[in-house]
Structure formats: C-alpha cells, structure tokens
Recover the amino acids of this structure.
C-alpha cells in the first residue's frame, strides 16, 4: 500500500512508537512489517524528523535505492559494535508497497564483510525472521555474536545459544524488556558463551540426582542407576563449564506493567495520539515532583494494612541480603527502589509501592494502582530461583491488603 492508503491510525501509532524509542535512546531499530505498512515515505520522514536510527540492509525501493543504512557502528561497553538489521520478505505485500526486500542470507553475505572491514569488535543482528531462520543464520555466520529477534511471540525465557551466537527474543508489542549482561571480553570472543543464570538450575539438578543415587537400593535397576549417573555427570560438566568459562552472559525478561512509573512527556504523547490517558496511568507527575514515600509514608493513613504487611514475607524480603554488600542483581526483587524529589534510595523490603506504584501524592487517587495486576507479581515471581514454585492463584489469595 503506497503512501496515503495506510490510514492515519497506523501512522500515528508508528510515529508514537518511534518517538518513544528515540526518547529511550535506542541505538538502532530494524524496520518491521507493520512499519512498512505505514509506507516507506513515512518511515523516511521519521528518520529525518525524529531521527529514528533505522538499520535494515535488505530493503530497497523498486529502482534499487536503499532508503536506510544497512548497519551502523554503536559504542557498547567500550567496544565498537556493528548493528545490522534484516527484515522479512513478503513478496505480495512488497509489490503493493513498491519496495523490494532482498533475501536475508544473500544480503548478509554482502554486508557482513563490509562491517568486518571497518574493524568492529562484534556484530549484532536485528531480525524479525523468526527463531528457526535466525538459528540458520547463526550457524551460517558465526561472526554474529547476538541476534535480537523482534515481532514474534512468545518471548524466550532461556536464550538459545547456537555455536557462538546468542538469540534473544523479548516478545512483541513492547510488553517486555529483554536485558542481557555480559562484558567486553565475552562480546569480543564469544566462542561458546555460557549462560550464568543456569548455575542454580544445574546445582539443583546435581543435588537431586545425587540424592536419588544415595537413596538407591540394591534392587534399583541398573538402567535406572545409569540414567541417574548420567544426569549427575551432565550436571557436573555443565557446572564446570559455567564456573571456568570466561565467556558468559546473563539474561532476564522484565514485564513492563502499567505500574511502571509514568514519564509525563510520553504520557502526553499517548494522550495526543489516542485521546485517552496511557494505560494504567494516573495523573501524570511533573518532573522533580516527589513520587515515592516508602512504606512508612503509607502507615499514617493505612495503619491496618501496614500492620498486616509487616507480618508478611514481603516486609522481610531484604533478609537474605542483609550484612553483605548488596548484589545489584538481587535488589530488583528483594528491595524497592524509592524515587523522591530529593533523589533515589532503596527501601530494604518489598514495600507497598513495589506493588501499588509510587504513591507520594496519591491520597486515594493519583498514580496508585488499586489492584496490582498479575504482571506486577510476575515481575519478581518468575522462577529466578531454581526450586521456586509460584502458584499464582494461591499466592494472590494470601496477598489481600485488608481494608483500612
Ligand atoms: C526475579 C526476582 C528475584 C531475583 C533477581 C532474586 N530473587 Fe531471591 N527470591 C525471589 C522470590 C520471588 C523469592 C521467594 C521464592 C519462594 O516463594 O519460594 C525469593 C527467595 C529468596 C530466598 C529465600 C528466602 C527465605 O526466606 O526463604 C533467598 C535466600 C534469596 N531469594 C536470595 C536471593 C539473592 C542472594 C539474590 C541475588 C543473587 C536473589 N535472591 C535474587 C525473587 C528473586
Ligand atoms: C505484594 C504486593 C502488595 C504489597 C507489598 C502491598 N499491597 Fe496493597 N494490595 C495488593 C493487592 C493485590 C491488592 C488487591 C487485593 C484484592 O484483590 O482484594 C491490594 C489492595 C490494597 C488496598 C485496597 C484495600 C481495599 O480493599 O480497600 C490498599 C489500601 C492497599 N493495598 C494498601 C497497601 C499498603 C499501605 C501497603 C504497604 C503497607 C500495601 N498495600 C502493600 C498488593 C500489595
Ligand atoms: C494522607 C493519607 C494517605 C496516605 C499517606 C496514603 N493513602 Fe492510600 N488512600 C487514602 C485514602 C483516603 C484512600 C481511599 C479514598 C479514595 O479511594 O479516594 C486511599 C486508598 C488507597 C488505595 C486503594 C485505591 C483504589 O483505587 O482502590 C491504595 C492501593 C492505597 N491507598 C495505597 C497507598 C499507598 C501504597 C500509600 C503509600 C505510598 C498510601 N496509600 C498513602 C489515603 C492515604
Ligand atoms: C518486588 C518484587 C516482588 C513483587 C512485586 C511481589 N513479590 Fe511476592 N515475594 C517477593 C520476594 C523476594 C519474596 C520472598 C521474601 C522472603 O521470604 O525473603 C516474596 C514472597 C511472597 C509470598 C510468600 C511466599 C510464601 O510461601 O508464603 C507470597 C504469597 C507472594 N510473595 C505473593 C505475591 C503476590 C501475589 C504478588 C503480586 C500481588 C507479589 N508477591 C509481588 C518479591 C515480590
């Protein structure tokens, strides 16, 4: 569909998403199929006006012009990283849109040597081709360290590693944020990276195999014993690899729930486009306005809830971290970040505002979330610890702040 036919809502939404991306400081964005439906002219205008950093190597106009750079160099953790994008060909729609989307495999064969010639330390691929094709690309082009897949559902809680390439998918429609941590050395020589998040899982598997072996009786069948021994050996080997490998990453998926603090500027764009407040938003807060009080600040008006909360494990969630230098990986779930006009601090507990959102100015309205949605709980209760079980329904019956 050429310009004009795409309709205003698609464009306004695309423009909004683009603005938010630029606002959030994204370094590169791949053109997706929905973006293309808004019209190439429109995307070019976004690149010029909003400075959207599109990178899509296999997109051409009918006369062979490439509207966007195929890749760009980005500084990341002291390294020079080449970020390249490829989008999915859909010949029928491409014809109607007046564009050509060339074969991703051939395109990469042309572009990757170009990138390497610029002396980058690592290559990252942005793709909407889907996991199977991405695995194929990872096998074919081992110089790609990281593939960030988009526009697909569901997200992958455990990123697959194909050779030296890690494939990440954080789901569609901006509902989740995928966070990858690694270091410069790992990114540069990402031979066969180990997922350090797996250490706990393998420790638990080893413990369970060993416990079974200990309990085995003389009647236990040989084949069963062999299977347990194999499990224990596999776990030991995996742990050895995780502990000795210097090439590593960790990864998590963070749901973006409506109680994420509202950025006033973004909220006003959403209102302008949709004519409605952004989902989950209360009254938007002005910059510099106090946002959190900490749980103690809720006590005066909600004494009964406070007394109940103090008796829950959430109030004691900081316990395991006490007396040590706080490990930043633990704070997001075992503590509450409290942002006030005077600066940010950490409340050593899963406080009221971890579930209800910032409440300094609420007095029963404002930003407070009355009934936190399940996504709020899943932000922390998502199986980070290997033996964790979370029965969502049962848990919610336990977390009922009393009236008063
Ligand atoms: C993604 C969220 C998340 C992260 C990150 C996290 N935890 Fe937890 N942690 C939980 C949840 C949820 C529970 C409760 C599990 C349950 O109900 O079994 C828990 C329970 C625990 C417990 C058991 C508490 C008790 O009283 O029995 C310990 C100890 C603990 N965590 C330590 C840590 C440490 C140390 C870190 C950082 C390395 C960490 N956790 C990171 C979510 C997290
Ligand atoms: C672990 C998450 C969590 C924490 C922590 C939490 N709440 Fe709640 N709160 C909820 C949920 C969930 C509901 C809705 C309960 C329901 O479904 O009936 C709720 C409901 C409420 C209500 C409305 C109760 C009613 O029915 O009138 C108030 C007021 C409230 N919470 C205040 C607080 C205060 C104050 C604190 C801290 C002292 C706090 N909450 C801590 C999850 C939490
Ligand atoms: C100055 C008094 C005051 C303080 C401080 C206060 N609240 Fe409230 N809160 C109220 C009143 C009054 C209501 C109920 C009236 C209403 O619904 O407008 C209420 C209602 C709520 C509700 C239910 C809202 C809903 O939509 O059902 C929640 C949740 C809540 N408060 C949480 C908190 C939390 C969390 C804090 C601390 C950050 C806090 N409150 C601090 C006075 C206060
Ligand atoms: C900011 C992170 C965080 C959020 C949000 C959160 N929890 Fe928790 N929750 C924890 C941690 C950490 C623990 C374990 C604390 C400990 O024992 O040290 C825990 C413990 C619990 C427990 C006690 C486990 C038990 O066996 O009794 C229940 C129940 C629970 N959470 C339910 C919920 C529900 C329901 C929600 C959403 C309304 C929620 N939590 C939101 C972090 C969180």
């Amino acid at each position: 569909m050429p310009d004009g036919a795409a309709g205003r809502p698609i464009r306004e939404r695309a423009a909004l998403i683009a603005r938010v991306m630029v606002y959030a400081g994204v370094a590169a964005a791949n053109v997706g199929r929905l973006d293309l439906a808004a019209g190439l002219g429109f995307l070019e205008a976004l690149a010029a006006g909003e400075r959207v950093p599109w990178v899509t190597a296999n997109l051409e106009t009918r006369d062979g012009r490439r509207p966007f750079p195929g890749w760009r160099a980005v500084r990341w953790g002291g390294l020079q990283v080449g970020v390249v994008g490829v989008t999915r060909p859909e010949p029928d729609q491409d014809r109607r849109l007046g564009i050509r989307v060339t074969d991703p495999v051939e395109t990469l064969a042309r572009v990757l040597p170009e990138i390497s010639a610029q002396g980058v330390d690592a290559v990252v691929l942005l793709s909407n081709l889907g996991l199977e094709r991405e695995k194929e690309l990872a096998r074919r082009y081992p110089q790609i360290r990281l593939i960030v897949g988009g526009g697909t559902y569901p997200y992958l809680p455990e990123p697959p590693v194909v050779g030296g390439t890690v494939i990440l998918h954080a789901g569609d429609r901006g509902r989740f944020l995928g966070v990858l941590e690694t270091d410069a050395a790992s990114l540069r020589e990402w031979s066969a990276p180990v997922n350090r998040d797996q250490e706990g899982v393998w420790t638990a598997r080893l413990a369970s195999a060993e416990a079974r072996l200990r309990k085995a009786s003389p009647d236990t069948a040989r084949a069963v014993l062999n299977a347990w021994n194999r499990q224990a050996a596999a776990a030991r080997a995996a742990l050895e690899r995780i502990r000795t490998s210097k090439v590593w990453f960790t990864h998590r998926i963070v749901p973006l729930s409506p109680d994420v603090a509202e950025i006033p500027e973004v909220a006003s764009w959403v209102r302008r486009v949709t004519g409605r407040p952004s989902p989950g938003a209360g009254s938007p807060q002005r910059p510099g306005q106090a946002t959190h009080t900490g749980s103690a600040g809720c006590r005066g008006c909600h004494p009964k809830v406070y007394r109940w909360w103090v008796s829950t494990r959430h109030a004691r969630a900081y316990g395991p971290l006490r007396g040590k230098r706080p490990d930043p990986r633990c704070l997001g779930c075992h503590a509450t970040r409290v942002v006030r006009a005077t600066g940010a601090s950490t409340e050593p507990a899963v406080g009221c505002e971890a579930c209800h959102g910032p409440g300094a100015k609420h007095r029963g309205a404002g930003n407070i979330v009355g009934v936190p949605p399940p996504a709020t709980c899943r932000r922390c209760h998502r199986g980070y610890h290997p033996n964790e079980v979370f029965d969502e329904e049962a848990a919610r019956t336990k977390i009922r702040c009393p009236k008063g």
